[in-house]
Every structure is written in structure tokens, then in C-alpha cells.
Amino acid sequence: MTETETEKDLPRILIYEELCKGCDICAVFCPTEVLELKGNMMTVKNLEACTRCQLCDLRCPDFAIQVF
Ligand code: SF4
Ligand code: SF4
């Protein structure tokens, strides 16, 4: 597998800064510890560990995170 293909296979996690209130729910539900709260903003700590399970997306009460 080439490097380009590896990068293409990684999930994309979008966090909408204007919607995220830093409640930490998405990080708590993420089974593989991909997400990390920094101040009042959710961030992606370990994208490689994301399984695209969508739990973060489904649990976020503010529709502030999406996984593709
Ligand atoms: S659940 Fe939603 S609002 Fe809460 S920290 Fe995660 S992305 Fe932000
Ligand atoms: S899709 Fe699943 S594995 Fe990926 S960040 Fe969200 S909860 Fe974690």
C-alpha cells in the first residue's frame, strides 16, 4: 500500500468550533480514545485509532462533530 492510499483510508473527523461547548461526551463514548478535550474545545488526539463507529457523532448533543 502506498502512502497516499494510507492517508486516503484515514477517517475525517470534523469538529465545528462554533457548535462545540466542550462537554466531553464524545470523548467519553469514544471506545478507542481518539478525542481529547483541550480547554473548551474537543480535539483529535489519535486519528489512526478511529474506527468510524460514529458514536461521537451520535452522542454529541450539539451536532458539533462528524466522522466520514
Ligand atoms: S459531545 Fe459535541 S459539544 Fe460535547 S465536546 Fe464533543 S463535539 Fe463538543
Ligand atoms: S467514530 Fe468512533 S472511534 Fe472514531 S472518534 Fe468517533 S467515537 Fe471515536
Write the layout of secondary structure elements.
Blueprint (H helix, E strand, L loop, with lengths): L2 H7 L3 E3 L9 H5 L5 E4 L2 E4 L10 H5 L5 E3 L1
Antiparallel strand pairs: 1-4, 2-3
Bound molecules: iron/sulfur cluster (2 copies).
| Radius of gyration using CA atoms only | 12 Å
Global shape: globular
Number of domains as seen in the coordinates: 1
Q: From the coordinates shown, what is the CATH architecture?
A: 2-Layer Sandwich
- The share of residues in extended strands comes to 15-25%
Reported by name, the CATH topology is Alpha-Beta Plaits
- Structural category is alpha+beta
Question: How many strand units?
Answer: 4
Order of helices and strands: HEHEEHE
In helices, the fraction of residues equals 25-40%
What's the N-to-C terminus distance?
A: 21 Å
Major β-sheet annotation: 2 strands, antiparallel
Helix run count: 3
Structural description of this entry:
There is one protein chain. With 68 residues, this protein is α+β, with helices and mostly antiparallel strands. It has a single domain, classed as Alpha-Beta Plaits, CATH 3.30.70.20. It contains three helices and four strands. Strands 1-4 form a two-stranded antiparallel sheet. Strands 2-3 form a two-stranded antiparallel ribbon. A hairpin with a 2-residue loop joins strand 2 and strand 3. The radius of gyration is 12 Å and the shape is globular. The two termini are 21 Å apart. The model has no long low-confidence stretch (mean pLDDT 92). Bound molecules: iron/sulfur cluster (SF4) (2 copies). One iron/sulfur cluster (SF4) binds next to helix 2. One iron/sulfur cluster (SF4) binds next to helix 3.
